[in-house]
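Box 3.1. Reading complex inputs
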Amino acid sequence: MESSRYLSKRKSGKMIIKLENVSKIYPPKSIALQGLNLALEPGEMVSLVGRSGAGKTTLIRLLIGEEKPTEGKVFFRDYLINEADSSTLSLIRQKIGVVFQDYKLLSRKTAYDNVAYILAVIGASDEEIKRDVPRVLNVVNLEEKAAAYPHQLSGGEKQRLAIARALIHQPEVIIADEPSGNLDSYNTWDIVEILKRIHQLGTTVIVATHDKEVIRQMEGRIVTLKEGKIVSDSQESNFVFY
Amino acid sequence: MFITTFGRIVKFGWAGFLRNRMATAVTVFVMTLAVLLMSGWFLLQGFSQAVVAEVENQMGISVYFNRGVGEAEIAQVQSQLETQFSSSLKAVHYISPEQALEEFKERHGGEALYERALEEAGPEALRPSLDISVYEEEQYQEINDYLLSAFPSLIYQTDYLNRQKVIDKAFELIYRINYFSLIIGLLSVGLVILVVFNTVRLALYSLREEIETMKLVGASNWFAWGPFVVQGAIYGLVAFLAANLVLLPLAYWLSPQLSLLLPSFNLWAYYQAHWLYVVLIQLGGSVILGKISTFLAARCYLKV
């Protein structure tokens, strides 16, 4: 990691993310989440674990306002995400960096431009973009692929680019949805190491995964989901899948 | 901050225009056709107005006076007529018997039958008359009735009854031309909006995931759709230029051909006289339509 300037400082006191009695039901009667209560402190490292279909991705979608809960409240700091208007939602999303399961890279932009786009979104100057983008590409070892388009990158490189994009604007929270999905063990180890280093420098990191190897490597709190409910919430790494 | 953001939106829009060349080419082509259609409608308006004016100029009634009625008396009739119908009269012309004779000779010179008839009737065969034209068709009847009742001793006859059918047909033709032109105009505007909107929507369909991603990583609606609106405006601007590359030479070439058909209409002169309207219609139809279409199409994908 080249420097800590991309990483937010640990904040104390207030919860950074809070879910109050959150349920999500997809029509007609598919229950994705049921009565979830969860509070995350600033600077925490949380692994959201569970089998496929346990509700991890739905939970992440609620956290970034991509979906609204059927019941309950989702807070980011003092913002009630599920009632935020479009501009507030944009501001909240600018404070959260997301590594999507399917990367969601902008296919018509180069690796450099994918990362630069986020800085453009938050209104950074051209000088800041020219200075920061190469640095963060360096952090994820992609400086030589700056001019490549997403389809020219391997799975691991796409994942690292997605992390660079999530990291560039120094968000308060980084959420990674199945960061090891489709990656070999070497690339998985790389990604986990990057996320751990980001966390060590003070950023709240949430990793949703069903990969036992990833869970073992990660440190911190483990929240286990099963059929849309939290069935365990502990600091121990000696977890079991329910 | 605002200027930087606006500059980036324009830059992204320009990059989007250059990037997908096939979609750009198709969109610009369709919009060029749309601009040509709108310009064609405007020029058709000019042509139909010229036809209407030509027909209107040919219309009117003539009032023939008895032989021996002097110019002063006829001037009196003209004066009273102009006072009585000041708002509805378009023109009143006095034709003396000498002028009538000249016109008759001009029109029928060399035609033996007419020349013989004129010889038999003598040099005073033609009567003094007033040629009257009005703005509204219904007023011919009114004027005819007024003249016959106010000056029965002076007037030999009017040709209102003879011309009534022609006048009715001419006004019906004018009405149909205006109606047809309006229908064509409305249809072309509707067609243009539909075609352009759907073409732009298709061009943006492939980008819907990108727009959603932009929103998910924190772009405001304005920042996400702004480049597409700029892209739409550029489509329109290029279509405007392309349409004029076709339209200007075409108008120049068609102008003498149309003048053969309707001598009072010069397409090229009409184009030059109304270039500002043409440009406004073209730019309005292409740039604004392009912007609105892309805005509406992009909005469909901004719901994330």
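In summary: Helices of chain A lie at 56-63, 86-94, 111-121, 126-139, 155-167, 185-200, 212-217.
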